[in-house]
Amino acid sequence: MKDNCIVAQSGGxxxxxxxxxxxxxxxxxxxxxxxxxxxxxxGIQGVLNDNLMDLSLMxxxxxxxxxxxxxxxxxxxxxxxxxxxxxxxxxxxxxTIFKRFDEYKIxxxxxIGGNDSMDTVSKLNSYAKEIGSDTxxxxxxxxxxxxxxxxxxxxxxxxxxxxxxxxxxxxAHDTYIYQIPSVVIVEIMGRDAGWLTASASLAxxxxxxxPHLIYLPEVAFDEEQFIQDIRNQLNSYRTVIVxxxxxxxxxxxxxxxxxxxxxxxxxxxxxxxxxxxxxxxxKEKLGIKVRSIELNVLQRCAAHIASRTxxxxxFALGQAAVKYAAADMTGVMASIKRISNDPYQWxxxxxxxxxxxxxxxxxxxxxxxxxxxxVTPEMEAYLRPLIIGEVSLQYKNGLPMYLPVEHxx
Amino acid sequence: MKDNCIVAQSGGxxxxxxxxxxxxxxxxxxxxxxxxxxxxxxGIQGVLNDNLMDLSLMxxxxxxxxxxxxxxxxxxxxxxxxxxxxxxxxxxxxxTIFKRFDEYKIxxxxxIGGNDSMDTVSKLNSYAKEIGSDTxxxxxxxxxxxxxxxxxxxxxxxxxxxxxxxxxxxxAHDTYIYQIPSVVIVEIMGRDAGWLTASASLAxxxxxxxPHLIYLPEVAFDEEQFIQDIRNQLNSYRTVIVxxxxxxxxxxxxxxxxxxxxxxxxxxxxxxxxxxxxxxxxKEKLGIKVRSIELNVLQRCAAHIASRTxxxxxFALGQAAVKYAAADMTGVMASIKRISNDPYQWxxxxxxxxxxxxxxxxxxxxxxxxxxxxVTPEMEAYLRPLIIGEVSLQYKNGLPMYLPVEHxx
Lengths: 409, 409
Prior knowledge:
- Two copies of one chain form a homodimer.
- Chain A has two domains: 4-156 and 303-359 and 391-408, 3-Layer(aba) Sandwich (Rossmann fold), CATH 3.40.50.450; 158-301, Rossmann fold.
- Helix content of chain A is 35%, strand content 18%.
- In chain A, 60% of the residues are buried.
- In chain A, α1 packs antiparallel against α4 (63-70) and α1 (17-31) crosses α12.
- By secondary structure, chain A is of the alpha/beta class.
- The first copy, chain A, has 13 helices and 13 strands.
């Protein structure tokens, strides 16, 4: 009888993906259905290469270890970027995976990841049906990009949004102290979806209007209009702070980072980030003090300022996935359904993973202002609940205490 | 009778400079010597331009307002970059300043800043002596660079160091998840002094060796040796994480950011930061996955992860400055004297401001390893106590609550 399960993580890191792992471990502990829970190291490749860690002791251990795991950034089990082939063209990796499932008596496989990982869930599920395997395949969402369909939002996004908003407010304080006019451009992750850049709007307070302008990748970016937008803001404000997605493109679909905005004064093309490209453009056109800041990986790894709401939801999604498998569901992803914004209420329900795999959710046009340089109050109402609440990290020697990952080194 | 005082802030922001301001306000409240405490907006220029805020109500208000001020980043009173001329060549600004002191019955002027600000303290003190003014002029140190003489370390540095170390650990977690070899270069502030870059060493834990290499501006940077250092590390580690000061220079004193390291593949010079320049160099020489991260202003404004030790010391220095003035001392700066590392013990004592003004303290050569790519255990023993302890911020709507600065907008 199959009475064990495997959990794995895949894709880019977030600060909440370990909370989902902790939720799976907790769900296993409470299910009475599974004897052992294995972690596959480096995603599905850990299954292929027989690189499994027994996490059962963690399930049995007292609260602190799972609690520390819940609050640790990135992937405790490591990640991979591996796309399964169509099994009708090449079934060999599938044969290895399901042989491993038999060998370890795996009744359920849980995969925590984004839309590429849901492609893996979908394919494994189809193959299981094809060969008549009863191993349940269940997905758990994650991505700071918030670009998965069906689920109201994705684990990891709320914490990244809280980091972006809090950092934006701190950058505003840092900028307001000077008397000379200046422009600050903050480059935010999300190549195709503007959700995380939009979350910069949450930084606004009664006294601080920053960011004054917000540019998302969902609408074409116009350099002339951008310069005019800044000019307009400089009529009202000494300091103009801009939030911009790394993925903005012009009307022909060219990334701004590779356009003439980034050419140096000799006309040579420079390879630079979007923020740096706009910094050069603003300096050239307006001759004003300008600084660009790339939030870089910090927005996906700053676990010390995670959103409590995000961590709680991520944990609950891991628990729910175990319940689905235990109830003989397969080929599903645990999704968040929002019931109301205020008070913020939500529930978890299963979604057919095929509705999620390989698809992406963009910011709806009606949540972008008609000037294309800001988001609407509806966007803020949607985003705000996701950044509420703080985590209580333990610190040791002045550093946040995270679960050691020596097995990844 | 003169019974009021003025406090002002100058130079670059830190997350602890408002703690010193809160300490001054608290000191005034307890001194029974001063009736009103004014804040000069935008440093000494606020005195010149008669732009003063009455902070007396804040001194009299209940704890929370000063507590919120203590934990707010950047300068509540705004900053300036203004250097007083030699009064023997041009006494006009001095005349305006001391006229203002008479007008507002100013018995003491407190200036919170770095070595440029201490130049202002020194000059105002000399002029006061020249004209026989009895207004006391007292300095309070601050700078994330930790490059002031006499004082064991500077307010603001410990919090920046805590941010750098914590962020470095989080970047390490983010990086360890991948299976392919990679190099990550983290660029840290401190153009002439390597203290803050050295604090990246505090990120090391039992399981995490990052940063594997550390380069300070105090020693000449050799590109070939750098590449060899990375090669050596890659023999032992899949992932090599490097902490590098923005101010590293080659043996001829040229900044690395402006050398051929930053030339593109056509040989064109690119204007880029040090981290980006090294990223391009590593990619070219080793053909490995490489990423550069510039911590940028976040390291001086991330008040949400301030060091409690730093905030407490900064507050105490503000209080001490008031005591010095009340005891008729002038031309002094409140300094920290370390008594022991472990247990960490310190006291505050007055220092002649002339010993600090316009001078800078570099990292001593004996605290840099002979390979010039790391710091010694003595450096870590010096740094560690400064990042210990966390602050308890209030949050509202998911954001840290800082004292509003609408008067600066």
